[in-house]
Amino acid sequence: MIAAWGFKVGIKAVIFDLDGTLIKSKIPFRKMKTRIIKYLREAGVTPSVISENMMNFEIMRRAVEDLKSKDFPEEYIREVIDEVTRLMNEVELESADDAELIPSVPETVKALKSNGLRIGLMTRSCRKYVEKILKKFGLLKYFDAILARDDVVYPKPDPSHAIELLKILNASVKEAIFVGDHWSDAECARRAGLRFVWFRHGENWGTEDSGILKVSSIKEILEVIQMY
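The structure corresponding to this sequence follows.
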């Protein structure tokens, strides 16, 4: 029986990504990116500086740098950032009702919690979307701490996102593992010094992923914890 497992004391906390790890996201990322790029170019960003081949955080980093290089006022740049955030939130929330739960998530999270582990959520999605999703699937009560995109200054892959969450969970990097499905999750964990488990959906990131611990089912996390 999963809930009866006695986990070793080496791990105190498990941090999960959301989209692609706990749920099958229905966020239309291409639609979101198209809206963001269209708005940024209209706001004064040099068209060639940003493209749909970049991740959103890279688009925003380059856009802000470009606007600063053109001496746009800080207040204006802040307004641009706020509008992009609004656009992202809007697209995310529109898709929340269509999200699907990944198999084995409820029983896995419940087993972790019942064995005294602290559970955290680290995501680049907005908090309203996160809370709506977790409430929809009855998972919110299991999480001790949540840090969404709009809760931090620098979201993952910046390591400060993970470090801040670990402080709330009262766990060190050696006392936690992070479970995610994207290379940016792995990069965040690497830079923070945090153990990472790749929930693999069949794709490869390249030769650099060869040393990463991989699982094909979320319930395998219960076995992974026994390793530490």
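The chain has a mean pLDDT of 92.
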